[in-house]
Design a protein that fits this description.
Blueprint: H1 4-7, H2 18-26, H3 53-62, E1 76-78, E2 87-91, H4 96-105, E3 109-112, H5 131-142, E4 146-149, H6 161-169, E5 183-190, H7 191-202, E6 208-210, E7 216-223, H8 229-239, E8 243-246, H9 251-264, E9 269-272, H10 275-279, H11 281-293, E10 298-301
Parallel strand pairs: 2-3, 2-10, 3-4, 7-8, 8-9
Antiparallel strand pairs: 1-4, 5-7, 6-9
């Protein structure tokens, strides 16, 4: 097997998550390297320089070890790179509600982590004539708001600030494995109490789980977002955690895999906290980055909230 520390230094350009890259490399998946390119932003901006959308994008990419990616979903979803920035909003999703709050704040640049138009690639060809798409698109265009998705790039920072921010939110950085931060060894706790802890820390009402609520949990694997069954199963096999905590799953994939693993006799449980709860801390990290790199630009985090409610 590959040393996890080396794994974290190699990025799969097609991966949806830094976590996917780590596990996929570990099990021998092919690595697709990209050729670093020079960022237009160069060094730090000059005090009297107009801060544009493109300047901020380029400055963030400058921090990424892989440089500019040839293939990425991290492109502008609305607006243009030469737009001067008034103020910035960060959020997981540019929902219509988030857009309206952005307008009310007088901001004109939204940096999001996830898609704006309902698919990973933000392909809108299938939405022609769709009234929801038209309303949202016109809301952005009429109010001259730029939306940039920062997904692939933020996950390529080392260490991945999305995972780091989540672990900090859970107060688990002190338990994090030095070679692979997503693996944590916490003091013994029952699955029931661990679920309660996650709900409190992440401010969520409910989680989905598989396992014995009285089972002791110590070795925990944290997989933010939706990394997919191949990554999840490979991680469970390699790291042998007591519990896998993830953002979301396909029920017919990871749900059935963990159920069968337990029936086989493996001592592994699953906790699904929700995609937004698992990655939203990354949008708060972005605020801190903006304050450091562009202190003269006002930036505010607006939570997009969960699209689903629970009874």
């Amino acid at each position: 097997m590959t040393d996890p520390e080396k794994v974290l230094q190699n990025d799969n350009n097609q991966s949806r998550r830094k976590f996917i890259t780590a596990i996929s490399t570990m099990v021998g998946a092919e690595i697709l390297f990209t050729i670093p390119m020079t960022s237009k932003a160069g060094g730090l901006f000059k005090p009297d320089e107009t801060i544009t959308v493109g300047l901020i994008m380029d400055r963030f990419i400058k921090d990424v070890p892989t440089g500019v990616l040839k293939q990425t979903v991290d492109i502008l979803k609305s607006g243009s790179a030469d737009m001067p920035v008034t103020s910035i909003v960060t959020s997981m999703f540019a929902t219509i509600e988030v857009i309206k709050k952005t307008i009310a704040l007088g901001a004109n640049f939204i940096i999001v982590h996830e898609p704006t138009f309902y698919s990973h690639e933000d392909d809108t060809s299938w939405l022609k004539g769709d009234r929801v798409y038209q309303y949202k698109s016109e809301l952005l265009n009429n109010n001259k708001i730029a939306v940039w998705r920062c997904h692939d790039y933020i996950h390529r920072l080392v260490p991945d600030p999305v995972s780091t921010s989540l672990l900090k939110e859970l107060d688990w950085m002190k338990y994090s494995d030095k070679s692979f931060q997503n693996l944590v060894t916490i003091p013994d706790i029952s699955l029931r109490k661990l679920i309660s802890y996650l709900k409190t820390k992440l401010q969520i009402d409910q989680v989905r789980y598989i396992g014995d609520l009285d089972q002791n949990c110590k070795r925990v694997l944290v997989a933010p977002g939706a990394v997919g069954i191949r990554t999840q199963s490979s991680a469970v096999n390699y790291y042998k955690p007591d519990v896998l905590i993830c953002g979301e799953i396909s029920e017919w994939e990871a749900g059935e895999y963990i159920r069968d693993a337990r029936a086989k006799g493996d001592n592994v449980s699953l906790i699904v906290v929700g995609h937004i709860a698992s990655e939203e801390a990354g949008s708060i990290f972005m605020i801190d980055w903006l304050k450091e790199k562009f202190p003269s630009v006002k930036a505010q985090f607006i939570p997009s909230g969960n699209s689903l409610s629970f009874l």
